[in-house]
Amino acid sequence: MEGEGAGQVPLDSTHLVVRAIEHGLLTAGVQVPGLKVHCCNDIPHSRGLGSSAAAVVGGLAIVNGLVTQVGSKPRTDAELIQLASEFEGHPDNASAAVLGGAVVSWTEHEGVLPRYSAVPIRLHPDIHLFPGIPQERSSTAETRVLLPEEVSHTDARFNLSRAALLVVALTQRPDLLMEATEDVLHQPQRAAAMPRSAEYLQLLRRCGVAAVLSGAGPAVIALSPQAELPAAALEYGTAHGFTVSEMAVGEGVRWTSGVTARS
């Protein structure tokens, strides 16, 4: 293991990539005599950046490379989304890791097991992405308990309208990003658990930059039609322990029959 998480994650069969490989082999009906797994990770852990989903998708992609060597058919993108989402319990990050770019995902609760699906959407070329990654960590499980079991019809209606508007903003109208990233259902509720991230988010928005918590946080991501963030936003981020830089839009998962996978 090298890169993010090196020296902190287990190096045995409990490693998430290895667990995904073993699960993928089991569901494919393929056995291998043994594996030496080398992981190079660029995604910080426990920041709301989807590192666990990327690890799972990477492991399943390795299985695709393995099964082609014995003449078996590799998993389709739809099958990878389903298997990876079963690990995660939802398709949000898993589908993005499989398809790359921007995606819309959903869950259907029919039958014994949920069915997870996703479709890609074309991100407008003028949108620039700036993650602000803090040193602090948090777990999705810990921050999820901060959310209420029930929400008002007014709040639900507000976020539904913003979710629809976000698709328009991401694909056609970047000038609508500020309005489209308004939220009343999870960011205010999580603010007390990550005060620095909450304040940075609000500072970015006061500077006219659309910003949201990345996943459950504490990372913050800014979306802007401008190629650079305002100086005040960069200075605040640096002063408060955030690593801020522009991030390219990721491609979908790739694998080869030589058992190399990239997610």
TrEMBL record:
Pathway: Amino-acid biosynthesis; L-threonine biosynthesis; L-threonine from L-aspartate: step 4/5. It is an enzyme of class 2 (transferase). InterPro entries: GHMP_kinase_C_dom, GHMP_kinase_C_sf, GHMP_kinase_N_dom, GHMP_knse_ATP-bd_CS, Homoserine_kinase, Ribosomal_Su5_D2-typ_SF, Ribsml_uS5_D2-typ_fold_subgr. PROSITE patterns: GHMP_KINASES_ATP. Keywords: Amino-acid biosynthesis, ATP-binding, Kinase, Nucleotide-binding, Threonine biosynthesis, Transferase. Its EC number is 2.7.1.39. Residues 174-234 form the GHMP kinase C-terminal domain. It holds the Pfam family GHMP_kinases_N. GO terms for molecular function: ATP binding; homoserine kinase activity. Signal peptide: none annotated. Transmembrane segments: none annotated. Residues 16-101 form the GHMP kinase N-terminal domain. It catalyses: L-homoserine + ATP = O-phospho-L-homoserine + ADP + H(+). It comes from the Bacteria. GO terms for biological process: threonine biosynthetic process. Belongs to the GHMP kinase family. Homoserine kinase subfamily. Catalyzes the ATP-dependent phosphorylation of L-homoserine to L-homoserine phosphate. This is Homoserine kinase. The lineage of its organism: Bacteria, Bacillati, Actinomycetota, Actinomycetes, Mycobacteriales. The gene is thrB.
